[in-house]
DNA sequence: CTGAAAGCGCTTACAG
DNA sequence: CTGAAAGCGCTTACAG
């Protein structure tokens, strides 16, 4: 089954490849007779012609492919929703999105040997060597959550920190506002998440300091009922009355641990997660959580990508991208 | 920042582009002097040369890119793990994996205008029109879970059904084996999952029939405590003593619903999920579930992809890819 | 209104 | 041991 080229279509419709290209691309400024146009379209359809992406990219000097590089850490429904929306957003502008998994297993540079993206969007910061390699390959790097202040179109680790801190701060302010005064932070056991956890924790600390509350206790809570119970026993003994969890999964472990040590939620201890995963509202008790407005985030990421590609100023980050969902656990 | 080409490297090292290509690709059968080789390598490194994937693909007539097309439905940690492993597996053979989200929003054919994959792996069956378009574009389609019987390297909806049915059968046999006789099937409310749910349900029905048990009751259980309670009330009244859930998320909803109507788990009703997501072991009570051995599945999918590309016979599916994890809920 | 020709960057027979 | 040249499939000035 030989692949059909534009030359085949030209031959079949009795015109030149130029005309085929004009018709199929709807090139503006050309005037092809309706009859010719119809013949070309018919031939292309009949032969099942699909233009070669490689040739088109080579000739144009740029592709319409955007590669999203996923962080090293596990992906949940929130990121999935983000990717879906981003794909739809960018498709409206003629850009195709493809996602790279397995980051960290081998250098990103290997990928550029096999594919020529126009831009690469990172959900976590790139390191300088990666940035350099991309730019040398003519690829535009785009940072997620970058440009919150509208300043820097380049990936900036500090910008991530800002968004993450906001989450921690919101969690802490919620419990402090409900009269809880002895807070603990439940960090994830997965070390790949340590960076994010540290940033969210910084937000928690800031909120505690601002409210004049005690420094929060901190411990890793693995997704295991027994291990979680051990941590919760210590916390209960220390008089902890509120737990901020890194995300809903960690929060679920905290709920299991508290149950095991006989602490009542929310009477004795209030718990707040992050993400609003489906499991949150089904938990016992239903879990209060911080919801990231992922559609807003995706739309912004799409806007940042387009602005960066166009060389325009990066739009400011929308103000409210996180909000609290209060349920039975707080 | 002009992009560096092999001609630049040739000029900088005082050799022809031919020699640059030979050195950089380690082309076998060529004998380049060590001194020349070193000069070329040094120049490429110094200039930050990255070969053009588009040109290489055009020239070679094929790329080393494999695109995985995600199904229309929501992605959880299981699929994430599968993609990670598949990416690593295929990278060992020089293939790069990129993942397409947002299926169904627009035709896959649009994607082939922007990228030239060597193969496309579908986690759900392709429809005939898509298959046709891919083949005409010179792309090799590969079906997930295909070739279980080693017969058909082409995507085959029936092969999916086989794997899915096995899951439902395993769930049902477990509860029937524990003396439960009045089973119910908790289907997902998300209509995009209806196809899979129907296949798993078929396995449940087969197991019930084989054991001489009554036909299972069937209802959709949304991820909402109140809605789930409504369903569970009906089931409790009907004397249901065992519930098979489409996946862990649905099972969590069932647990919430049963709790709401005062049914004890597992004393009154046993519950079994699918996936072994982190939330399963943290549920109240900890959830029994069917675990898919996703690494095995990923390795097999990689093997199927390679065999299909090489025109070899597709390897048989490994025998045990699902297993039961028994916890407190059954 | 349409076609002949150049050229994107690479790889690879082929010639020396 | 190394280079000149062709050609992958496309788009786009340019010529008619």
Which term fits the overall shape of chain A?
Answer: elongated
The overall strand count of chain A is: 10
Fill in the CATH topology of the largest domain in chain A: Rossmann fold
Largest interface between protein chains, with number of residues from each side = A-B, 69 and 69 residues
Question: What is the H/E string of chain A?
Answer: HHHHEHEHEHEHEHEHEHEHEHE
CATH first level of the largest domain in chain A: Alpha Beta
The CATH architecture category of the largest domain in chain A equals 3-Layer(aba) Sandwich
Structural class of chain A: alpha/beta
End-to-end gap of chain A? 64 Å
Report strand % of chain A.
5-15%
Provide the spatial order of strands within the biggest beta sheet of chain A.
6-5-7-8-9-10
List low-pLDDT spans of chain A. 145-160
Radius of gyration of chain A: 26 Å
Mean pLDDT of chain A: 87
- Helical proportion of chain A? 40-55%
- Give the CATH superfamily of the largest domain in chain A: Response regulator
Report the total helices of chain A. 13
Subunit organisation of the chains: homodimer
């Amino acid at each position: 089954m030989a692949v059909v080229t534009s030359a085949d279509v030209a031959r079949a419709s009795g015109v030149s490849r130029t005309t085929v290209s004009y018709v199929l691309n709807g090139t503006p400024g050309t005037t092809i007779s309706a009859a010719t146009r119809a013949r070309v379209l018919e031939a292309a359809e009949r032969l099942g012609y699909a233009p070669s992406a490689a040739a088109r990219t080579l000739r144009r000097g740029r592709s319409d492919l955007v590669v999203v590089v996923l962080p090293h850490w596990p992906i949940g429904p929130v990121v999935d929703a983000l990717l879906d929306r981003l794909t739809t957003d960018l498709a409206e502008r003629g850009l195709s999105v493809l996602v790279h998994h397995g980051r960290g297993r081998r250098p990103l540079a290997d990928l550029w040997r096999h594919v020529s993206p126009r831009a690469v969007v990172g959900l976590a910061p790139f390191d300088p060597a990666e940035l350099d390699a991309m730019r040398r390959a003519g690829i535009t790097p785009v940072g997620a959550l970058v440009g919150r202040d509208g300043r820097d179109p380049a990936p900036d680790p500090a910008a991530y920190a800002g968004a993450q801190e906001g989450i921690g701060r919101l969690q802490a302010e919620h419990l402090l506002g409900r009269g809880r005064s002895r807070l603990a932070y439940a960090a994830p056991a997965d070390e790949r998440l340590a960076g994010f956890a540290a940033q969210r924790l910084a937000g928690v600390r800031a909120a505690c300091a601002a409210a004049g509350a005690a420094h929060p206790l901190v411990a890793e809570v693995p997704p295991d009922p027994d291990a979680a119970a051990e941590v919760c026993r210590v916390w209960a003994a220390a008089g902890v009355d509120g737990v901020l969890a890194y995300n809903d999964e960690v929060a679920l472990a905290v709920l299991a641990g508290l149950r095991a040590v006989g602490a009542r939620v929310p009477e004795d201890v209030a718990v707040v997660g992050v993400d609003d995963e489906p499991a949150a509202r089904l938990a016992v008790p239903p879990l209060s959580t911080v919801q990231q407005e992922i559609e807003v985030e995706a739309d912004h990421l799409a806007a940042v990508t387009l602005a960066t590609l166009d060389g325009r100023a990066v739009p400011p980050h929308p103000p409210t991208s996180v909000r609290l969902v209060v349920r039975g656990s707080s």
